[in-house]
Specification:
The complex is a heterodimer of chains A (246) and B (447). Chain A is built from ten helices and seven strands. Chain A is of the alpha/beta class and 246 residues long. Chain A has a seven-stranded parallel beta sheet with strand order 3-2-1-4-5-6-7, sandwiched between helices. In chain A, α2 links the parallel β2 and β3. The longest helix of chain A has 28 residues. Chain A is globular. The relative contact order of chain A is 0.13. With 447 residues, chain B is of the alpha+beta class. In chain B, the strands form four sheets. Chain B has an eight-stranded antiparallel beta sheet. Chain B is globular. The chains are: A alpha/beta (246), B alpha+beta (447). Chains A and B meet through α2 and α7 of A and α1 and β5 of B.
Chain lengths: 246, 447
């Protein structure tokens, strides 16, 4: 693999696992995220581990307007073709979001709007090159708005529609768009949560699947059984679905 | 949003004889480590769980802390071999990344599946102790998160008393965040290994005493069930690094289930020892090439090998006896094992060199003997007997392996414990850090 990967939200466990996979393929990597100290540590680790010294970091915070243009400026200088992997978003408590406008707005900005603006700013770059991949982490929560989690879910659903359009727009430039829908994953984020009694996904296995599927695009459920669970949930009659308390 | 850091986990020693189920955090970044320390009481850092006894087992109302998600290399200087990494990096990762580049851990224990933080907290030693000392000798500095929330960089020059209390300090002085250690330059990832049979204890000591002071790693696998004139027979393995690359090593199969408790009985252990002595080494010493990973970590090729001992688990006993009394002490230990009809699956003898500067560092100039015993009725009492013999011969028991030592024995064996306790009192007045071992040995109180 040649060229470079921009990783948005690079301090998340899933993004780090992905970075480990592509660092071995010797491409340039730009780690972007809010905590640059953590990003620098990850960059140093990847460099030493895989003898890949083409790794840089940049502050990227969806809440800060100046970060978008800074990202774009940095991306222009990266070796072509560029690829992007997006793992940002936040899932505050829904009750708090319903009551507090600012918390809800912040969630939409980091889970939907910020991603759209960041990728939009790179679309001209993508259109100039032939080939490349865009990988976006969505969620099974976006497949159907559930009572307990529909605010976050609706932002993820918006992301899916965005990816569909992006896929169409960039198809002439042979850019593949992959939307990943992870179920419950074994990450520090889910460590302290009450998780459903289902097998938990391993970040490394997902990262390998992302590398493989990035060349094809489409939608990836992980672990795979979520595809069938969501198939059932999507097709539940509304009368029944509304009574379910989840 | 702040999600909870804690999830209930059962933290167990490698021997499977001590465990606790407590809220445990697994931080994914350095900030969460600080948060965990603030939220927790009686916190025990748990690396990869290779300490055999209760060293890394929290007290019943305590908390656990995994650091293996923080496992990044932070810098490496190819001019002098200085490596800085986070505490959760494993020895296996260090060897895998650096052996092909001509660098190796200067000191390594018999398993690579330990974190560097855990290795420092036990001041581990290896088969080259006589020449290289313990791991602590090669540690340049540590970043230590102390119980009041501050992070201190400690070394032999800065806050040396805290540094030396942390080397071998059982994780009781603070949370080790980052480690700077010096790797050793090696000619390759391969070793020339020679096996010599030694026919009894006299021959064993003769062979060990004649070990030349060179770049060698020496260990004796001993048949602890041999009696009479062949008592102390074994195989001396001596290896040194040579040029050449090894195939990337892969994790081998893992024991998927607990063996029945009966699987390791005196008869099967006797049969194994017979086989090992007679068939794994040639009658005349011969030198063979072997990958360094295979030489240093023979048991790592079988995941969860501790399951072999069944659900009751096992005890490991490791003692070091000063050189002038070592022959008599080890003879006495072997005699009581033989008389008790308790087999040890694999016994290991190593020569050890000068004592390190860590306050609770284990090795002293002499001989170390390590033995495994299936956990049965009376095993703990029997081990107390071995502790007594060790103490009578001026020796000490290795805390990384221990779950039975009593406070009085510990204090007699580790004369620098008073200073260690004083440093702990200053650093941790409210007992943020604790463990079952710390309480047992009087290094922390029960509340």
């Amino acid at each position: 693999m040649s060229g470079s990967w921009i990783i948005l939200g690079a301090s998340s466990a899933l993004a780090q696992a992905f970075a480990h996979q592509i660092a071995q393929e010797n491409c340039s990597i730009l780690l972007a995220g809010r905590n640059t100290r953590e990003l620098d540590a990850t960059a140093a680790d990847l460099a030493i581990r895989y003898n890949n010294y083409n790794i840089s970091t940049i502050l990227f915070d969806t809440q800060r307007a100046d970060c978008y243009s800074a990202l774009q400026q940095h991306a222009i200088q990266l070796p072509k073709p560029i690829n992007i992997y997006v793992a940002i978003g936040s899932m505050p408590d829904q009750q708090i979001m319903l009551a507090q406008t600012d918390v809800c707005a912040e969630m939409v900005l980091s889970t939907y709007t910020g991603i759209v603006l960041a990728i939009n700013s790179l679309v001209p770059l993508f259109q100039e090159q032939m080939g490349g991949s865009i990988v976006v982490l969505g969620s099974v929560a976006g497949d159907r708005g559930r009572k307990k989690n529909f605010l976050y879910g609706s932002a993820k659903a918006g992301l899916e529609a965005y990816c569909q359009g992006l896929r169409a727009l960039l198809s002439t430039a042979k850019i593949k768009v992959l939307l990943v829908k992870p179920g419950v994953m074994d990450t520090p984020m889910t460590w302290g949560l009450k998780n459903p009694p289902l097998p938990i996904g391993d970040p490394e296995t997902l990262a390998k699947a992302c590398v493989r599927k990035a060349k094809k695009g489409g939608v990836l459920y992980f672990p795979r059984f979520w595809k069938y669970i969501m198939l059932i949930i999507r097709h539940l009659p509304t009368a029944i679905f509304n009574r379910l308390n989840f | 949003m702040t999600t909870s850091l804690w999830r209930k986990q059962t933290l167990s020693g490698w021997g499977g004889t001590c465990a606790a189920t407590v809220p445990t955090a697994k931080p994914g970044n350095q900030e969460s480590v600080e948060r965990a320390l603030i939220e927790a009481e009686n916190l025990t850092v748990f690396g990869l769980g290779r300490s055999y006894g209760d060293e890394a087992v929290p007290v019943s109302n305590g908390h656990g802390l995994y650091l293996h998600a923080l496992d990044r290399f932070l810098s490496f200087d190819p001019d002098n071999g200085e490596l800085v990494c986070e505490a959760g990096v494993t020895l296996e990762e260090i060897q895998t990344v650096f052996l092909p580049r001509g660098w190796a851990l200067p000191v390594t224990p018999g398993t690579a599946y330990v974190t560097i933080g855990g290795a420092v907290a036990n001041d581990v030693h290896g088969k080259n102790h006589i020449r290289a000392g313990t791991l602590g000798k090669h540690i340049q500095w540590l970043d230590l998160l102390i119980p009041n929330g501050e992070t201190l960089r400690v070394s032999r020059l800065d806050l040396p008393h805290i540094f030396l209390a942390t080397i071998g300090g059982l994780g009781l002085t603070g949370i080790i965040r980052r480690v700077c250690l010096k790797l050793a330059k090696v000619p390759g990832a391969v070793m020339a290994v020679t096996k010599h049979k030694v026919k009894n204890l006299d021959a064993l000591f003769e062979a060990c005493e004649s070990i030349p002071e060179q770049d060698d790693h020496d260990v004796v696998w001993l048949d602890a069930m041999a009696r009479g004139s062949s008592m102390g027979r074994g195989i001396l393995e001596r290896g040194h690094f040579i040029k050449g690359q090894a195939k990337p090593h892969k994790a081998g199969p893992s024991l998927p289930i607990m063996f029945p408790n009966i699987a390791l009985n005196p008869l099967s252990i006797w049969a194994f020892n017979q086989f090992y002595y007679h068939f794994t080494a040639p009658a005349k010493p011969r030198t063979k090439k072997q990958s360094a990973m295979k030489f240093f970590y023979p048991l790592d090729s079988i995941g969860h090998w501790n399951r072999m001992y069944g659900s009751r688990g096992f005890h490991q006993f490791q003692a070091v006896i000063p050189r002038d009394l070592a022959y008599f002490g080890i003879k006495k230990l072997l005699e009581s094992i033989s008389a008790s009809h308790r087999g040890s699956f694999l016994a290991v003898v190593k020569r050890t060199g000068e004592q390190g500067d860590g306050l609770l560092s284990f090795p002293i100039n002499g001989y170390s003997l390590a033995l495994d015993f299936p956990n049965r009725k009376g095993t703990a009492e029997f081990l107390q007997k071995l502790v007594g013999i060790t103490r009578d011969h001026g020796g000490r028991v290795y805390l990384a392996k221990d779950s039975i030592l009593q406070r009085g024995d510990f204090e007699a064996m580790y004369p620098r414990h008073e200073l260690f306790k004083k440093i702990c009192r200053d650093l941790d007045p409210h007992q943020k850090l604790s463990s079952q071992m710390a309480v047992r040995l009087g290094l922390r109180s029960t509340t």
